[in-house]
């Protein structure tokens, strides 16, 4: 459905990205940055996916609510997302928790992060609000979700994934009727309801909601007046609407963006070190599950002015090479080997070193003769010469954070504590 002028619904919408969470399951990766600010894919940050989806969908008014250790996130958005033009009715607002409602209160929950900025949103007069989580990896056309919202006459439309029922205990789960109208919404249930006609799968919330703006504000004000509310969309707002209004499920498969060679709908919550590691390495596959080369749906990010990647030395045992790997700009692979690895901007690998299944964040320096396997290395770390990681699980566990799947997270303080 189009508006009366024939323009996309997205032109009358505002995207509001909830980007205040720490993401504590990412451990030391979020000690100094919020989860949406964590690097991903060689050049991007996690939040770039939600923001790029909004821009590519035609939404030109965007707000981002920040809270936990937001400096690097705000700096990134100021550098990468400063191209919006007010004279074209475009806007990009960064909305830190600023105690605007009360001098004693930060954002108390996801719903409160919108409620505290109602006056700013009202100044733009959007007809629709698209509420987004800022910490997932996926490509999606929100215009198609907006169309379903309007056509169905729903009070809220909830983006959802089909997941194995046994895995749905970590999500908000919807029970729906044959028309995908939500009849109940349960936050992380022990026994998730299945999809009608499909007992092995459940519908899990993506943390994406579409509202008519006027209706959303009514619900936020009602919720703010409830002393028992936790001020949360998944815990309070959505269950209330399911009970008292009409909530519609929107399946990700109906609006997922896939390039020609992508064989599945790709959505990842990279909320653990293992999930983060696997999602980054997904990009190294010959035919990756997520196509970052898709020019029809680009992932916008900060453009770093830097030299091209460089590979040097061509001697037996000292040959700069990369196999099934992504090597970003300003990297130098000097007589070293990267295999099924992802090197972010500015990584330097010294002679005779090797990285196998490694996710190496920006401006790391890998010392000579180091051997690294199944690692995530935080930005700016200098790996000492000769360090071996990934060959002795017991030793790795004493020195670094080692996950159940054998992935080692390495940070500056961990290296500083080594007695080499």
TrEMBL record:
Q: Where would I find the Glucose-1-phosphate adenylyltransferase/Bifunctional protein GlmU-like C-terminal hexapeptide domain in this sequence?
A: 307-410
| SUPFAM superfamilies per UniProt | Nucleotide-diphospho-sugar transferases, Trimeric LpxA-like enzymes
Keyword Endoplasmic reticulum assigned = no
- EC number(s) per entry: 2.7.7.27
Q: Which domain of life is it from?
A: Bacteria
* Gene Ontology molecular functions: ATP binding; glucose-1-phosphate adenylyltransferase activity
Q: Summarize where alpha-D-glucose 1-phosphate binds, as residue positions.
A: 107, 172, 187-188, 205
Q: So, what pathway does this thing act in? A: Glycan biosynthesis; glycogen biosynthesis
Annotated site residue numbers, Could play a key role in the communication between the regulatory and the substrate sites: 67, 106
- Function of the protein: Involved in the biosynthesis of ADP-glucose, a building block required for the elongation reactions to produce glycogen. Catalyzes the reaction between ATP and alpha-D-glucose 1-phosphate (G1P) to produce pyrophosphate and ADP-Glc.
Q: Which PANTHER family match?
A: GLUCOSE-1-PHOSPHATE ADENYLYLTRANSFERASE, GLUCOSE-1-PHOSPHATE ADENYLYLTRANSFERASE-RELATED
The entry sums up its family as follows: Belongs to the bacterial/plant glucose-1-phosphate adenylyltransferase family.
Q: How does it assemble?
A: Homotetramer.
- The protein's name is Glucose-1-phosphate adenylyltransferase
Q: Which organism is it from?
A: Novosphingobium lindaniclasticum LE124
């Amino acid at each position: 459905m189009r508006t009366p002028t024939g323009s996309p619904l997205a032109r009358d919408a505002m995207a509001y990205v909830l980007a205040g969470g720490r993401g504590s399951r990412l451990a030391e990766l979020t000690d100094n940055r919020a989860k949406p600010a964590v690097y991903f894919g060689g050049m991007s940050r996690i939040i770039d996916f939600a923001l790029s989806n909004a821009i590519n969908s035609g939404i030109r008014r965007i707000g981002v609510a920040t809270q936990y250790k937001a400096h690097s996130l705000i700096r990134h958005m100021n550098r990468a997302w400063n191209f919006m033009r007010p004279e074209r009715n475009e806007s990009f607002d960064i909305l830190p928790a600023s105690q605007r409602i009360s001098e004693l209160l930060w954002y108390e929950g996801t719903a409160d992060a919108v409620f505290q900025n109602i006056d700013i949103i009202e100044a733009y007069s959007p007809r629709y609000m698209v509420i987004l989580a800022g910490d997932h990896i996926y490509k999606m056309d929100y215009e198609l979700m907006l169309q379903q919202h309007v056509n169905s006459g729903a009070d809220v439309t909830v983006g959802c994934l089909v997941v194995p029922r046994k895995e749905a205990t970590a999500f908000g789960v919807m029970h729906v009727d044959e028309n995908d109208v939500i009849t109940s919404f349960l936050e992380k249930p022990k026994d998730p309801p299945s999809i009608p006609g499909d007992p092995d799968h459940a519908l899990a919330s993506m943390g994406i909601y579409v509202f008519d703006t006027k209706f959303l504000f009514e619900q936020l004000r009602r919720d703010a007046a409830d002393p028992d509310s936790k001020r949360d969309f998944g815990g309070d707002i959505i269950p209330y609407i399911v009970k008292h209004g009409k909530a519609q499920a929107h399946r990700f498969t109906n609006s997922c963006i896939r390039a020609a060679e992508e064989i599945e709908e790709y959505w990842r919550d990279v909320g653990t070190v293992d999930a983060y590691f696997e999602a980054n390495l997904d990009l190294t596959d010959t035919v990756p599950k997520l196509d970052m080369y898709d020019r029809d749906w680009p992932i916008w990010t900060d453009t770093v002015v830097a030299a091209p990647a460089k590979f040097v030395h061509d001697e037996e045992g000292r040959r700069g090479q990369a196999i099934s790997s992504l090597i970003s700009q300003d990297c130098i692979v000097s007589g070293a080997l990267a295999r099924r690895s992802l090197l972010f901007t500015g990584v330097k690998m010294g002679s005779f070193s090797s990285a196998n299944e490694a996710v190496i964040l920006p401006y790391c320096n890998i010392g000579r003769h180091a051997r690294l396997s199944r690692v995530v290395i935080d930005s700016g770390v200098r790996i000492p010469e000769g360090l071996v990681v990934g060959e002795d699980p017991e030793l790795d566990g004493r020195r670094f954070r080692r996950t159940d799947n054998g992935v080692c997270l390495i940070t500056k303080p961990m290296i500083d504590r080594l007695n080499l």
